[in-house]
Design a protein that fits this description.
alpha+beta; 32% helix; extended
Length: 152
């Protein structure tokens, strides 16, 4: 019970500040557009953010056979966030389909001369890394809790 009281007190104290939670507290601003616009160009609290919609399960052949519609591919993207990371990594996969990754950023937020080149190099590095993961041998290992995970 003491731990619950301590956590409640800590959350109440933190909720009284704007630190680490500006997006959730936008509702408290009477006019957030000027405040939001004022955040552009200021240092950000993170370099990047990753949003992963995980896997969409859509059985296209059965849906088409039934005369219904289905998903052949999925793409997910978000607009740049003046309060978030400098670059957004958005991930979504269609079951038995491709993983789609989009990179979005606000012009000038990366604070480098050639943002397009940086993003292109980031994309190439991500592809190389994902290809290495895909090519790595996999084995299923059991943990003491009985769960399984893939490892190399």
């Amino acid at each position: 019970m003491a731990a619950a009281r301590k956590t409640t007190a800590s959350l109440a104290r933190i909720a009284g500040t704007l630190h680490n939670q500006p997006v959730g507290l936008l509702q408290c601003l009477k006019s957030f557009q000027p405040w939001m616009t004022g955040q552009i160009g200021k240092p950000r609290d993170s370099a990047y953010e990753i949003s992963n919609f995980l896997v969409f399960d859509s059985d296209v052949p059965q849906a088409v056979a039934a005369g219904s519609w289905g998903l052949e591919s999925v793409i997910f993207s978000q607009p740049p966030n003046a309060l978030g990371g400098c670059i957004e990594v958005n991930v979504v996969t269609r079951k038995t389909g491709k993983m789609m990754i989009t990179l979005t950023w606000q012009k000038g937020a990366l604070d480098i001369n050639d943002e397009e080149e940086f993003v292109e190099n980031t994309k190439k590095s991500m592809i190389e890394c994902l290809n290495e993961v895909a090519a790595a041998p996999r084995e299923v290992a059991s943990t003491p809790l009985g769960a399984s995970h893939l490892g190399s």
